[in-house]
Amino acid sequence: MKSKRSLIKFSCAIFMAIILIGCEETDTVKQEEAQTVTTSSNSEIFESHETGLIFHIPKEYQEKGIKIEGPDIDEKGHDFIRINYYYKPIIDKLIDDMLALSPEERTKQAQQEFYENMYKHSKCLMDITLIKEEEYNSSIKDGKKHNELSYWNNAEKFGTNDGYVYLIAIPENDTDGMEAEEKAQYEECHDYMKTAKENIEFTEINELGKMPRQMPKFTAKDLKGNTVTENIFTEKDLTVVNIWGTFCNPCVEEMPELGEWAKIMPENAQLIGIISDIESENDNIHYDLAVKIMEKSKADFTQIIANKDFESVMSWVTGVPTTLFVDKSGKIIGKPIVGADVDGYKKFVEDYLNGK
Q1: Which residue in 74, 77, 85 sits closest to 152, CA to CA?
Q2: In what order do the strands lie in the sheet with 53-58?
Q3: Residue 157 predicted with pLDDT over 90
Q4: pTM flag (> 0.70)
Q5: Residue-level pLDDT at 102
Q6: How far apart are the C-alpha atoms of 280 and 344, rounded to whole Å?
Q7: Which phi and psi angles does 151 have, rounded to 5°?
Q8: Who's near 133: CB < 8 A, 6+ residues apart?
Q9: Per-residue pLDDT reduced to its tens digit, 268-308
């Protein structure tokens, strides 16, 4: 497995998937686009249209905490889908307790403890990463190993389908921090992954529902009450779109640096933010928190409050920060950057404007 920083980022993504704006609605839209679920007498068949995979998961394991999530895009720009484990008795309480905290109580230490506790009781059981055959063959020829192409160190080639190579990884058993009952339940789910792997089938990949290639038409408000539309992209050759949430510690930590960068960006580039967790015009808690974050960070770039107009983008985003790059016509270009990486944002802008 990768660094501790990556593990905390994984926990942050889990939490943000629950509180993203329009959570129930956008998750429903994405589920309809991404998966077909067929129920039999004792199991359910999950067909992931975007990844061309069919999973067979008995109900008894779903009740124990197994859940198929994704597809999403990793930091290398590859599609992936995961089978995760959640110990609901603890996970549900952690989330309820965090949401019950006031903005003042939601300190950096409180959030850090939340992320670490979430990770102890929510594990990745299986990861499948898709890489285009041409890219895979070129990378292997250049001497790259599977662990350099996947998030996981023990990834191996699973097969090929519809122009993609599939790398599969079943992370090592990790029961750190678990009590006896949870440990037994998790180990049973972990052991089942060998059977789940044997039962996976390939099907045709349906590109519908993948990351959008165009920003939607929208009419929204920014934090200052101004009306903003998609015409904001026509003002510059390149717009960096930072999608973030007020509860995400990495998002908040990078905000001062983003604020400084916004002031010195090249004249033909700009930075805007999209706040993912202000749920409505009456959501004063998140609105006030976002204002305080911007003031404390001394960041003064445009912050758009996401609404239903952004559904095509927000239904794809499952973790924040996620940063997109948009050209003058509103087209999303390059690969998104998932996770706080200001140096990565800057490099993309420099390379793009220099024609690289």
Answers
A1: 74
A2: 35-39, 43-48, 53-58, 201-202
A3: yes
A4: no
A5: 82
A6: 32
A7: -70, -20
A8: 160, 163, 164, 165
A9: 999 999 999 998 878 999 999 999 999 999 999 999 999 99
